[in-house]
Amino acid sequence: MTAVIPRPAGRTAPRTAPVTVPLPRPAVAPRPVAGPPPGRPAPGAEPGRDLFVDVLRLLAMALVVLQHWSMPVLSFADGRISTGNALSAGNMWLVTWVSQVMPLIFFAGGAAGAISFGRAARRGLPAPAWVAARLRRLVLPVVPLAAVWLPLPHLLLAAGLPEQPVLMAARLAGQLLWFLAVYVVVVALTPLLVRLDAAYGLRVPAALAAGAVVVDLVRFTAGLEAVGFLNVAFVWPAIHQLGLRYAAGRPRRPWLIALAGYGAAAALVATGPYPGSMIGMPGAAVSNMAPPTLALLAVGVGQIGLALALRPCVMAFARFPAVSRVLAWTGSRMMTVYLWHMSALCVVTAVVVVGLGISTPEPGGPAWLSGWPHWLLLLVLALWPLLRAFARFEKPRPAAPYTGGTARIAAAAGLAAAGLLLFTAFGFVPGPAPLVGAGLLLAALPLGRTAAPASRNPAVPR
Question: A Gene Ontology MF term for this entry (predicted)?
Fold first, then answer.
């Protein structure tokens, strides 16, 4: 590249070639070694976020809520509420191969965590400080849920409501916290998992999948059902690790990944002890979900491949202004929806099924299909005030970055996970276990805070 230096005004330029001086070429930013091409962020979204991951999380969470609200088959008689599952009829279990989207949530969470951790590392934020900020955003919204549900069964029973429906609702409100218990652990391990991914790549999820194979072999050949829960440490981290792989570089041949995952799941269901449904069904001897099985891992791989294959369509859909506004609005409310959507179900069930004595029609029939939109509308109306009241807990007040050590934040993660597991196992049924769970959760929060006051609004990783 050259530049022409003009002659001073008023002088006659000789008939010679213009004087040229070589200029340095503009610096070209180095191309990253790997990484998914970021989508155009939604209005108001944090720069550097991957729009595909945001849309995937939103769609997966919407499917979780829709499935939980649509599955129950409820009736009330003689002071007891009876429950069934609409997806247990006929071949409806096939729907669960798409609607059971917890694998996609772990995948998207892994990708978002890796992207966020990379941004924080480039800003010089220490790994424990990043973990502390993430844990605070995960754990703090559970506090109001516990504060409402711990005394609520006592109040309802004292008011004379039937005992069985009250205790069932109290258990149901805490059961879904299993996801947070596992997710808190993988978030705390994210700095280590990112280093393992950088060093070993796909060998990490492959090793975790091999662990799931061993666990299922022992579980089904020796008849040791309790061994199956070891797969919580293999299946979900393996899928989470695939999210880290996506953040490091988008996999090729996604259709092949989808076919391999779904094909392996079909083979396992056809030849092994695995049921066809990817959610627990009433009366089923084996559940693919609790504990997670190799078949569920295979379906998760198939879902990830399918999502990656449809990525261009998802990106085009996400760039519509209306979708961008929905993404911006839901970004700070998604955890609240997850935590409280079953409480909304309990409220509507108490009014419609217990109070008015209206039972769920035969699933799939004309009455069920015509009443389903009205049922969903009632649930949305019940969730809305809960969302207005408790979404603020997803946006903690600004705090100085965490300055404690790794051991302290590891203890916080362990206490939080233990408290969430107690809520999962016992719900909020009156007794000592939920109180212990609440105590563990409250003990975890101060460990993840810094003692120094906040002097400014730091860039908290999302």
Answer: acyltransferase activity
